[in-house]
Batch of 2 targets.
Target 1
Amino acid sequence: MSEPEASERGVVRTALTERLGIRHPIVQAAMGYVSGPRLAAAASDAGGLGLIASATMSLAELDQAIEETAGRTAAPFGVNLRADAADAAERVRTIIARRVPVASFAQAPRPELIAQLKDAGVVTIASVGARRHAEKVAAWGVDAVIATGGEGGGHVGAVPTSLLIPQVAAAVDIPVIAAGGFFDGRGLVAALAWGAAGIAMGTRFLLTSDSPVADPVKQLYLAAGLDGTVVTRRVDGVPHRVLRTTMIDHLIRGGAVAGLVRSARNAAAFRGVSGTGWREMLRQGQAMRREGGLTWSQVLMAANTPVLLRAAMVDGRTDLGLMSSGQVTGLIGDLPSCAELIETIMAEAGRCLDRLDETRKA
Ligand SMILES: Cc1cc2nc3c(=O)[nH]c(=O)nc-3n(C[C@H](O)[C@H](O)[C@H](O)COP(=O)(O)O)c2cc1C
């Protein structure tokens, strides 16, 4: 058999690349205040799929972000949204009207939203952290799932990626995008071996030169070791993996009362930055209590997240801010562009596949 061309080595075709019409099976995971037009367009332009994180944007900001992203790249990109947002239906209408190729949901989307998007030709993706969630959304008709293991950044489940992906891939017939701990070509090949059709990465894309995050924040991530993150419920009531900072240590050690006082203050600040009225915040809080089984103190804590994430990602406040992070930050030591990153990953995946092939022949 003839040696594959160097250019062929970096080409991996999967159900995901075919379904989305992208060159490489690599998704830039949604990150609030991080994955706006600049990062999403750079990831898509490099042959992956960029996702705009819209949960931290108003409807008008989302509309503007879509327009800017489409102006920066001709490649397919997507919008990530919360299915439980009060204006989810309007966001879906905007995605359809703006002809965004992909809609990805942070939680299980309602079947009628999926149907509406699919009728309009939009590819739908749902994030899941457990097999039963993957089975549920697959039955509702989503086109693909992003399954995130416990080493991932942000809100995470307890099952590690190495166990979750084979389990989910065996359970559903739609493409599974593996997430949680990926950063290189070996990881991509491992994900394919587990039955996934591609990978999604958050922390790795945050640590690129195309990411808009302030340099001191990036440096903190780069300096962290594999033990540099912690999963805590103290931030917003549900398990959240973040960089371990002095502020986080205080939060973990501090009493519930101190947490509540801080939460109330942040809720007030969030109202200020987001323009959300108290009546709307109360409505959202009641919905969270009902659907998420949360207590009022947990609901109040949830108001922490956008304010604290913004302080770090937008204002560069490493002292005050919340920095969601995957464990993988401990293995990352550079800030390539998205194009360099994706090219390096695909070249390494190609070499890795060749090496495995040699092992089989030996
Ligand atoms: C800084 C940061 C912000 C995030 N914000 C969001 C978000 O707004 N919505 C969401 O669904 N997931 C969010 N996530 C989770 C990512 O979409 C993804 O699941 C995770 O980063 C994958 O793990 P990795 O960081 O090991 O690649 C965030 C992750 C990070 C690191």
Note: The mean pLDDT is 88.
Target 2
Amino acid sequence: MPTLERLPHDAAIGDVMKVIDRDGAVILEGMLSRAELDALVAELTPFLTATKVGRESFSGFKTTRTGALPARSPKVRVALVDRRIRAICDEVLLPNCENYQVNVTHVIRILPGEIAQVMHKDRWSWSYLKGMEPQLNTIWALTDFTRQNGATRVVPGSQRWPDSRRPRPEEIACAEMSAGSVLVYTGSVFHSGGANQSDAPRLGMNLTYCLGWLRQEENQYLSCPPEIARTFEPELQQLMGYQTGGYGLGFFTPPLGPEEAPEVYASEWAVRPADT
Ligand SMILES: O=C(O)CCC(=O)C(=O)O
Ligand SMILES: [Fe+2]
């Protein structure tokens, strides 16, 4: 059985990238302290327990997915701009964009009795796009991830496989990790949620990033509208998509009467401080 390489959370970026280039994934251990983890879970729990299970097999009939995380949780805002994750995003995404953006923010809660998800590459959301890496993904373990409770299954090296090749069981590694660790994987690596044969939920916080000129899977302008994003620090506002995504990308016109406002504004203007 293949295994995933584990590195300490503060490993040098060069060492992290060597593993990601080889395997398409790596586990960073100890990203959150016990106190940080407990506070994050406490902030999210009311939203998680109120979320209904999925209505089709990919989402999982015994799995809940709770979104709009930065709008709902200040602690998720901190995780989204984590220096260690941003350094990896810079390496993976900046070769193909001027800036990258938040794509999906979900807590995936796999309940007891859930079966394994179908193996897939997350980049298939943009199936027309070939020949470059569009995405960098994280799953923050909010509970321990074990083979029994549905730890993410990952196929090391499969980021180089053609879409048509499917993993055989003996090619699949299990992202077993303790709560507070983070699985980092690219959009091109085969993976899926595991089956939960334990008697407790498995909680994973899936924070994903994509090239700034792609459409976000979770529409961040609706999940995190300007009234909320306005309260964020500029770095996070920009990551949420409130930034010019490249020349001419993302401008808007306030829908006002004639001569009430200039016609063309940069996205940043939508989240300017309220008193300007
Ligand atoms: O929950 C997991 O471990 C992975 C889920 C996943 O890959 C997905 O929903 O795209
Ligand atoms: Fe996935």
Note: The radius of gyration is 19 Å.
